[in-house]
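in:
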């Protein structure tokens, strides 16, 4: 089926920030008496909602804990430096040809500052955050809702994701998925329809034309 819109995950995909998130969680969990290594973050937590990550590691979650995590994250990324120029060019290329969406397990309070500072906010027709859904990834609800708001059928959506959790969400919704391998490696992303090592305009063009 012809692609009618492109959707990007946020953490680790549009924004190359998974190392930042790992660092924030490492520091926060250590302070809370439940140390976490970067390897454990990538193995058990990457791609999930904050609530799920806190519950998995601490056994509980709270708005206060999530707000503190977001505050620490924002201090490190608010300048937009985690969105590299190749990704910005890819978004601009896609947005000039079709609707572009952002579909994330992150919260709007951390997404919006990065989109604005990277100059990309106005290019997105739809921005879906964890605030907009009742069931986060790997549930298909985020991508089903994105397709609904884009007014297309889910199989018309080309999705870029960097975690197996995100791939599962998009595939369950019926979307076509390009798995970015830089976060978890090719093996963990094997359920994607295709694998890519980077996101740039040439990659988006190739996938849209294939």
């Amino acid at each position: 089926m012809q692609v009618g819109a492109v959707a990007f995950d946020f953490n680790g995909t549009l924004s190359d920030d998974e190392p930042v998130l790992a660092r924030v969680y490492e520091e926060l969990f250590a302070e809370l008496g439940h140390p976490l290594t970067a390897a454990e973050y990538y193995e058990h937590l990457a791609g999930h909602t904050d609530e799920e990550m806190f519950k998995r590691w601490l056994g509980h979650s709270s708005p206060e804990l999530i707000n503190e995590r977001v505050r620490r994250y924002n201090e490190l990324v608010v300048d937009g430096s985690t969105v590299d120029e190749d990704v910005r060019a890819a978004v601009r290329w896609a947005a000039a040809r079709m609707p572009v969406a952002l579909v994330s397990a992150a919260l709007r309070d951390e997404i919006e500052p990065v989109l604005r500072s990277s100059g990309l906010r106005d290019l997105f027709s739809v921005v879906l955050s964890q605030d907009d859904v009742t069931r986060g990834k790997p549930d298909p609800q985020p991508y089903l809702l994105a397709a609904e708001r884009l007014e297309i059928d889910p199989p018309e959506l080309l999705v870029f994701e960097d975690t197996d959790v995100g791939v599962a969400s998009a595939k369950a919704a019926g979307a076509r998925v390009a798995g970015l391998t830089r976060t978890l490696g090719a093996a963990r992303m094997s359920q994607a329809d295709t694998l890519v090592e980077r996101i740039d305009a040439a990659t988006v063009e190739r996938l849209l034309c294939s």
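note: The radius of gyration is 16 Å.
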